[in-house]
Amino acid sequence: MWGSLFLKQNKKAPARSSTKYRALAVKSEDGTINRMEDLLNLDVTPYTDKIIAEYIWIGGTGIDVRSKSRTISKPVEHPSELPKWNYDGSSTGQAPGDDSEVILYPQAIFKDPFRGGNNILVICDTYTPQGEPIPTNKRHKAAQIFSDAKVLGEVPWFGIEQEYTLMQQDVNWPLGWPVGGYPGPQGPYYCAAGADKSFGRDISDAHYKACLYAGINISGTNGEVMPGQWEFQVGPSVGIEAGDHIWCARYLLERITEQAGVVLTLDPKPIDGDWNGAGCHTNYSTKSMREEGGFEVIKKAILNLSLRHKEHISAYGEGNERRLTGKHETASIDSFSWGVADRGCSIRVGRDTEKEGKGYLEDRRPASNMDPYVVTGLLAETTLLWEPTLEAEALAAQKLSLNV
């Protein structure tokens, strides 16, 4: 882009690009064109009914997103219209080399903001050729939980707050930070404006619009406490949809940061020391919680969550022990707590929920790199399907002062 601007101002300058991949050619005396961008932006809709479907899946680490493209003969409106596909699982850490075929099952469709037109992004989950979900397929179990009649009847809503950190390419240091040095202490950066306080707004805004275009239920964004850190929120989403939307939003963010030459990290504590970590707070409610008397239902849910604290923590993201220290607006990873308007608790209940006697709870324990299928499925399972013993329930109620 800078090369194009320079050429427009200085016609005698050679046609050079700011990157080795760009091919500029003189179009007229007062302008240039980028041949690559013309092709990338080419609308093929008037010339063919065929579309490009980008099949997206989660790789072997459980946090990496992979994708590849295929041509579909005509526009589609539902995943069932798409064929299954396969990929080399030995190259993603999901299958041995001598039996490497993994099958992709299309599960959710989004509009493709990069290619436009009728082209689509396809969220898939992964199976063996015999039809068994592979170990890294966390969507399958979540879908089973959300299809349970009791869970369906409670219409579980989720609002997920995805925090992330932008890093400078090649130096593994946050965007906007002096290389090898530190900015001023936290305080001025949260929801801030200004070149000395906000780093990466163009990426956040581009991602926001891309999500809206794609059909992701994104509800907002903001700059976070640590400089170079941002957040976007998705929801309210019902059931399995929450995980599909977060994974697609993460994919879009990876693509946008790729184009910007910035590295995205979902590490829950990217910088050691007196800096906030990155979480993925998950707001949750059921039909009973949203109706009159819902606060008592919320308290019962909190009781159940307290009794399965270790199970949840073990599934809430790698490296979360570096973030959940009891400092920087977190609870200790080793203990369970809840409170009204207290961001230092495991579970926070909002003032409005307390006042209205109904509403939702916020699980503040999930790390930024959590799997949304796992977290949303666990919340529904623990609060709707799992029943503690009467003795455990009584002891937990006494300890947490739930008065249930």
Automatic annotation (TrEMBL):
Its EC number is 6.3.1.2. Residues 51-131 form the GS beta-grasp domain. Residues 138-404 form the GS catalytic domain. It catalyses: L-glutamate + NH4(+) + ATP = L-glutamine + ADP + phosphate + H(+). PROSITE patterns: GLNA_1, GLNA_ATP, GS_BETA_GRASP, GS_CATALYTIC. It is found in: Plastid, Chloroplast. Gene3D superfamilies: Glutamine synthetase, N-terminal domain, Glutamine synthetase/guanido kinase, catalytic domain. Pfam families: Gln-synt_C, Gln-synt_N. InterPro entries: Gln_synt_N, Gln_synt_N_sf, Gln_synth/guanido_kin_cat_dom, Gln_synth_cat_dom, Gln_synth_gly_rich_site, Gln_synth_N_conserv_site, Glutamine_Synthetase. Belongs to the glutamine synthetase family. This is Glutamine synthetase. It comes from Daucus carota subsp. sativus.
